[in-house]
Amino acid sequence: MTGYEARLITFGTWMYSVNKEQLARAGFYAIGQEDKVQCFHCGGGLANWKPKEDPWEQHAKWYPGCKYLLEEKGHEYINNIHLTRSLEGALVQTTKKTPSLTKRISDTIFPNPMLQEAIRMGFDFKDVKKIMEERIQTSGSNYKTLGVLVADLVSAQKDTTENELNQTSLQREISPEEPLRRLQEEKLCKICMDRHIAVVFIPCGHLVTCKQCAEAVDRCPMCSMVIDFKQRVFMS
């Protein structure tokens, strides 16, 4: 089923609303059970198609790790599909709030290019949205630089980690020094294990090395992605 024509043949008796040529181009073939289809490469299956649904979008939505999808559409396409889903979900939630708050979020957060950049670096949409809202509430304006936004996100993640460690220490009988030791280890550079981590790699978003070790690498030691930019961050 690696060939387009071979996949298209499987849709011989296809009578559903989604275009069979689009399905075949998106890597799917019919398995002969109602409108169920399956990707020839990743094996991901889809069914219950709605009118005007795009096979490529559904492929990216449910199986973003498919290598065929990545080769044909690229990382940016997949990231944009998931960003759109996150934004749509957030808009549904904000409609339950006051009109003035909804307008403020839509006017100052969603159009901000740093929102998408932070998500592409690996930060969760809800975390980015929350920290931007808090920034607006305390200072009256959104972030002006990506570096400050990333530093605050990292700090917030650190606080979350500390809280989780504190909760774990209450649930388990461990020594009082254990959470502190783990937190100290998390702050250490994963290369030299001596100095504190101080640089975030862009675009992958990993924060794993000190300033000195970061200068010596061209690829992230965590995921091996090529580093386009190295952003200095300051952790308390």
UniProtKB/TrEMBL annotation:
<dbReference type="GO" id="GO:0005737">
    <property type="term" value="C:cytoplasm"/>
</dbReference>
<dbReference type="GO" id="GO:0004842">
    <property type="term" value="F:ubiquitin-protein transferase activity"/>
</dbReference>
<dbReference type="GO" id="GO:0042981">
    <property type="term" value="P:regulation of apoptotic process"/>
</dbReference>
<feature type="domain" description="RING-type">
    <location>
        <begin position="189"/>
        <end position="224"/>
    </location>
</feature>
<dbReference type="GO" id="GO:0004869">
    <property type="term" value="F:cysteine-type endopeptidase inhibitor activity"/>
</dbReference>
<dbReference type="Pfam" id="PF00653">
    <property type="entry name" value="BIR"/>
</dbReference>
<keyword id="KW-0863">Zinc-finger</keyword>
<keyword id="KW-0963">Cytoplasm</keyword>
<comment type="similarity">
    <text>Belongs to the IAP family.</text>
</comment>
<dbReference type="InterPro" id="IPR013083">
    <property type="entry name" value="Znf_RING/FYVE/PHD"/>
</dbReference>
<keyword id="KW-0862">Zinc</keyword>
<dbReference type="InterPro" id="IPR048875">
    <property type="entry name" value="BIRC2-3-like_UBA"/>
</dbReference>
<dbReference type="GO" id="GO:0046330">
    <property type="term" value="P:positive regulation of JNK cascade"/>
</dbReference>
<dbReference type="InterPro" id="IPR050784">
    <property type="entry name" value="IAP"/>
</dbReference>
<dbReference type="GO" id="GO:0008270">
    <property type="term" value="F:zinc ion binding"/>
</dbReference>
<dbReference type="GO" id="GO:0010804">
    <property type="term" value="P:negative regulation of tumor necrosis factor-mediated signaling pathway"/>
</dbReference>
<dbReference type="Pfam" id="PF13920">
    <property type="entry name" value="zf-C3HC4_3"/>
</dbReference>
<dbReference type="GO" id="GO:0006915">
    <property type="term" value="P:apoptotic process"/>
</dbReference>
<keyword id="KW-0479">Metal-binding</keyword>
<protein>
    <submittedName>
        <fullName>Baculoviral IAP repeat-containing 8</fullName>
    </submittedName>
</protein>
<dbReference type="Pfam" id="PF21290">
    <property type="entry name" value="UBA_BIRC2-3"/>
</dbReference>
<dbReference type="InterPro" id="IPR042579">
    <property type="entry name" value="XIAP/BIRC8_UBA"/>
</dbReference>
<dbReference type="InterPro" id="IPR001370">
    <property type="entry name" value="BIR_rpt"/>
</dbReference>
<dbReference type="InterPro" id="IPR001841">
    <property type="entry name" value="Znf_RING"/>
</dbReference>
<keyword id="KW-0053">Apoptosis</keyword>
